Amino acid sequence: MCGRFVQASAPTLLVERFDIDEVVAGTSIEPHYNVAPRMEVSVVRDRDQVRSLSQLRWGLVPPWADSTPIGDRMINARAESVSEKAAFKGAFERRRCLIPVDGFYEWQAGSAKTVPMYVHAVDDAPMAFAGLWESWRGEPEADPLLTCTVITTIANVTMRPVHDRMPVVLDPADWDEWLDRDARDAGALARLLRPAPDDLLTFHPVSTRVNSARNDDAALLVREDPLTLFP
User: Fold this and answer.
1) Is 60 exceeded by the pLDDT of residue 231?
2) Closest Cα partner for 163 from 38, 4, 9?
3) Distance of alpha carbon 62 from alpha carbon 65, whole angstroms
4) Choosing from 22, 84, 97, 106, which is the catalytic residue?
5) CATH number for the domain that contains residue 58
6) R_g over Cα of the chain
7) What range does the domain containing 121 cover?
């Protein structure tokens, strides 16, 4: 699964990297080093062939949901079933998005304690998670709540020592197809949801401060000696 990630790149870098046409009014892009569920996250979407950057709440709330807490169980969608599950099927067909990240955290279970790992691209370039988004209204006249989820797949060779699953990190060559709202071939889209190349990512242990979402600073990314994490 993916339960925490980092969005710290400057807006100008994101605009250039993801070929953004429009930053939606009201979007406040501040660096976050410990993004947790229910937080507002930066998302790239296609809006009538305009590539936009906006903020959506992490934890997808399906249109048919009675209330928003269901989103707490929808922070991830499994690539193997995303085209079939009722909560994600509609979004998979028409509401796909990119979630820009600088890296993500995963917890490696050991013989004694669980060690937090920071996972990032070998070249430290921003990456794009495959995501889905939805619009939910509690009342017919209410403003819509826009939410999103991260798609996960089986771990690649690099990630297997840490966890058996990982977020889908889309190849830049696949970004246009993933965002294209007219792309409806479920089989072709599903083929994009593969594990990242084994040489794309690297990881290192970080402070257990990351365990608390209240901690949100660049020091969380600093490599730690595992022997010092649990005195």
Assistant:
1) no
2) 4
3) 5
4) 106
5) 3.90.1680.10
6) 17
7) 5-221
- Full-prediction pTM beyond 0.85? yes
**What sign has the CA pseudo-torsion 164, 167, 169, 175?**
positive
Structure confidence by residue, pLDDT tens digits, 154-192: 999 999 999 999 999 999 999 999 999 888 888 899 999
Active site residue 148: no
Count Cβ atoms within 10 A of the Cβ of residue 2 and give its class: 0-12 exposed, 13-18 middle, 19 or more buried: buried
**130 within some domain:** yes
Q: Closest Cα partner for 101 from 118, 79, 75, 125?
A: 125
**Residue whose pair of structure tokens reads 């930053």 in the numeric block:** 23
Which residue, 11, 88, 12, 19, is CA-closest to 49?
19
Residue 31: predicted pLDDT: 94
Domains contained in the chain, number: 1
Q: Which residue of the set 2, 97, 134, 148 is catalytic?
A: 2
**Annotated catalytic, 84?**
no
